Amino acid sequence: MNGADADVSPARPHAAPPGAEWWRSAVVYQVYPRSFADSNGDGVGDLRGIIEHLDHIAGLGIDVIWLSPVYRSPQDDNGYDISDYEDIDPTFGTLADLDDLIVAMHERGMKLVMDLVVNHTSDEHPWFIDSAASPTSEHADWYIWRDPKPGFGPGEPGAEPNNWGSFFSGSAWRFEPRRGQYYLHLFSPKQPDLDWDNPHVRAAIFGMMNRWLDRGVDGFRMDVINFISKDPDLPDGEVVSTGFGDGTPHFAYGPRIHDHLSEMQREVFAHRPGAYLTVGEMPSTTPERALRFTDSETGQLAMVFQFEHMDLDGGPDGKWTENRATVPDLRASLSRWQLELGSRGWNSLYWNNHDQPRVVSRFGDDEHHWFASATALATVLHLQRGTPYVYQGEELGMTNVPFESIDDYRDIETLNHYADAVTRRGLDPAVVLAGIRAKSRDNARTPMQWSAADHAGFSSAEPWIGVNPNHLALNAAAQVDDPASIYGYYRRLIALRHEEPSVVHGDFALLLDEHPTVFGYTRSLGDEVLMMLANLSSDAATLDSSALPPGPWRLLLANTTDADVDTVPAILGPWDARVFRRGGTSGA
Ligand code: NOJ
User: Fold this and answer.
1) 26 three-class SS
2) Per the residue annotation, which of 77, 281, 395, 500 is the catalytic one?
3) Cβ(39)–Cβ(52) under 8 Å?
């Protein structure tokens, strides 16, 4: 490993500044609890495991933890199917454990953002159990029920109310004989969609959110929140490779989405002192729409998760391909979001989360340039305008997992896709598996690699999903005390954001927009100008210095030890990334 920096001091105990919009200078760390740390030896991560490892996160300089769902759940989709919004699943611990986590985090100056999954519940939630029982039950119209298509018998193939496919394969409708009707499930049949047009549904959700904030949590990451308002006509969608219709134009930005989120703002956040971090997950959103949600004057959310850069490496069968995104495409997309959200909106910045393959394998070179590509990609992301998110293990450069067989996978989306593609559509299993290896969500879900010990130090028992064999060399124990590690580099990037107002507030301007492999930009705030240059390629890249803004430039941070301080090089080596400040003293 190598790494060189000039004047960025190491991570410090960090308390997020109080007051409105504190999240603009924050860095968030996502914990996926199943895979983070197992304290009780059952092979599944839990809340006490998180408490035991808080110093790993605080040591990076993190301000906020986003915790993926820990609520009661049958775990059909690893907790994104909730059967009780106000209790903790025994797999993860108890409400008392969560209270202890909040205290331990607040003591360290970190805030807790909970996952809010309210587009759907579990089919084992009491609301759905009652709703499915009869068309006259108390909760009868809390979900999206429709009669069979005219001309078809109830439950007959083709009788589904429209042609939409589910994100987890198959139809998005399931027949319920007790009602003689179908219910909509955009995800698994065990995740029925709530009907947000029903005011009782909204009141119940807002009440639940208020109780969590009263308990001490500091905000919400809102699961597929742009899906909560559906076009009530539920029109058919365009048929795609699976044979089902794509319904997203009819539910990804529905007619009442802004009304619902404005009401949430009024009912949950408006009357509380201080600001909460709210981030809406929004597949299929555009910069124009994201700006409406995050406008600092009129928006309803602090920021959104957009997916444009995550969708660049798809193919005819959606995401399931080994395709790689090109640097010009990535650069064009990310810089467009920077420019279009501008100073009125706010970006969230991410490469990884529990649904995405590992960035160093996906956009980097985990075989030949593991350290350099992980740190170059981190530099490109963290110097942008917005709030950066670090997904557990990203700060160690964790990679995709080389699972050999479909039997190694656990994720419902992956397993359903394999069955659908191979069994129903007759595709070549080897090709399907290659796409899964590249893109399965399980790449992000293998156990956190704490050490070279058995099960990577994650658990004393066999984990619920296989450990990546590279944990013998790639683990936290080998990195946290080494300033030249990937973990050490993330600490410096995060410290840079905390220390340089231009990283938080500066204007963004793209450089070298024709270059085949270099991503470069400046961030300017008054007289302060920072310049980031990164070669996102395993080959050296030539720089035309006449196309760069005039210096003098002082080096602030670099991921190579041979970086010649203060000189903008004519050639950037493979995955070479550097950050410069114009004029002044570098303190190097
Ligand atoms: C998005 C979440 O991130 C993903 O993990 C989940 O499967 C779906 N929403 C459904 O809740």
Assistant:
1) coil
2) 281
3) yes
Rounded Cα distance, 307 and 281, in Å:
9
Q: Which residues pair with 63 in a beta bridge?
A: none
- The answer to whether 252 and 227 have CB atoms below 8 angstroms apart is yes
Question: How far apart (Å, rounded) are the C-alpha atoms in residues 440 and 33?
Answer: 18
- 112 phi/psi in degrees, rounded to 5: -115, 125
CA-closest candidate to residue 515, choices 534, 499, 496: 534
Identity of the residue numbered 75: Q
**Are the beta carbons of 355 and 444 closer than 8 angstroms?**
yes
Ligand 1 centroid to 281 CA: how many Å?
9
CA pair distance 471, 97, nearest whole angstrom: 28
- 499 noted as active-site residue: no
β-sheet bridge partners, residue 281: 305
User: Predicted confidence band at 585 (pLDDT cuts at 50, 70, 90)?
Assistant: low
CA-closest candidate to residue 133, choices 60, 189, 183: 183
Q: Are 304 and 294 in contact (CB under 8 A)?
A: yes
Comparing CA positions, the residue from 38, 30, 24, 35 lying closest to residue 60 is 30
Tell me: pLDDT of 451 over 50.
yes
Cβ atoms of 213 and 276 within 8 Å: the answer is yes
pLDDT at 21: 85
Separation CA 179–CA 321 (nearest Å): 40
96 C-alpha to ligand 1 centroid (Å): 26
One-letter amino acid at 390 equals V
**Is residue 186's pLDDT more than 80?**
yes
- 100-158, pLDDT tens digit by residue? 999 999 999 999 999 999 999 999 999 999 999 999 999 999 999 999 999 999 889 99
Return the beta strands (E) in 268-419 as ranges: 277-281, 303-305, 348-349, 387-391
Contact call for residues 574 and 18 (beta carbons, < 8 A): no
**Atom from ligand 1 closest to the CA of residue 413:** 7
> Which residue's CA lies nearest to atom 2 of ligand 1?
223
- Ligand 1 mean position, distance from CA 223 (Å): 6
Is residue 316 scored above 90 in pLDDT? no
518: DSSP letter: E
